[in-house]
Specification:
Elements (H helix, E strand, L loop, with lengths): L8 H19 L1 H24 L2 H16 L2 H16 L3 H31 L1 H16 L2 H12 L3 H25 L3 H9 L4 H30 L1 H4 L7 H10 L3 H32 L1
Length: 285
């Protein structure tokens, strides 16, 4: 019980957050509608494109990609079996919905995280300022920031995309910064002495040398984005998480198990393919 002389900071903070969300929703309602449509469009587009691909063609494309990066028949066949297993479970549509959300979220993570990582590596003060922000983004439970995001953007794919972006951005940006900071300074000085400008040095020397670490960060972002699938279903995002949520709501353990197994299969597919690309690019480097 709170003493009478101690102010109730929790209620004050609650009122402050509610007023802030109400002010954003009321003052920028039209802009938020446009932002919601802008965020939803790419997810719907990728989802539609994925669903247009027949399952056998998708499996063959996965096998071809696996063979290209690893050159092992067993690995290619194992990767091709995973989408076939998803189709066999009867969750192909939901799997493609989840995959579309992950693909768009990871693309946004790369577009935002790469410049942030480069800027933080170039400006140590910026890196120190961003570090606590990254810590906050990673330590706050996803359910906590899911509420204001859903209140501002409503239910559906748009808030799910924003929540996934917040959750998956820090590891990629941090590992990008770490990879660039690990580049040998003498190589950078040699490149500058040969007449390369700062931008040329970045693209031709620093980013290629930091590529293994950056790709590792991308792999982490993919896994963290996929981890948001179940959570995103609570705010109206379609996909495999919705199956798990329905299983919990209906007390149907079989349905929940099918959804969970499908998420595991999709995670294995994405993780193994990403790791294969990472190992292959590391050898080339």
């Amino acid at each position: 019980m709170t003493p009478d002389w101690l102010p109730d900071a929790g209620k004050a903070l609650q009122r402050l957050v509610n007023r802030a969300v109400d002010a954003v929703v009321v003052g920028y309602g039209d802009d938020l509608d446009g932002l919601r449509a802008l965020l939803t469009a790419p997810v719907r587009g990728v989802e539609t494109a994925l669903l247009l691909i027949p399952v056998p063609v998708f499996a063959l494309a996965v096998a071809a990609g696996a063979w290209f990066v690893r050159r092992r028949l067993g690995f290619a066949l194992a990767m091709a079996a995973l989408p076939l297993a998803l189709a066999g479970l009867g969750v192909w549509t939901e799997a493609m919905q989840s995959l579309a959300l992950v693909v768009v979220a990871v693309l946004l993570v790369a577009l935002l995280g790469l410049p942030l990582g480069v800027a933080a590596a170039r400006l140590p003060r910026l890196g120190r300022a961003l570090a606590p922000l990254y810590d906050l983004m990673q330590t706050i439970p996803s359910f906590v920031y899911l509420i204001p995001v859903a209140m501002v953007l409503g239910l559906g794919r748009a808030p799910a995309l924003v929540a996934t972006l917040i959750y998956a951005l820090p590891p990629f940006a941090r590992l990008t910064e770490l990879g660039l900071r690990g580049v040998d300074g003498e190589l950078v000085l040699a490149a500058r002495a040969l007449g390369l400008g700062p931008r040329q040095t970045l693209w031709l020397i620093e980013l290629p040398l930091a590529r293994p670490t950056i790709l590792q960060g991308l792999n982490q972002a993919i896994m963290m984005a996929l981890a948001m699938v179940v959570v995103a279903s609570m705010i109206g995002a379609k996909g495999l998480g919705e199956i798990v949520l329905l299983g919990l709501q209906r007390a149907d353990p079989g349905l929940g198990f099918v959804g969970g197994l499908a998420i595991v299969l999709l995670a294995i597919l994405l993780d193994r393919m990403a790791q294969a690309v990472l190992v292959e690019r590391g050898r080339e480097g």
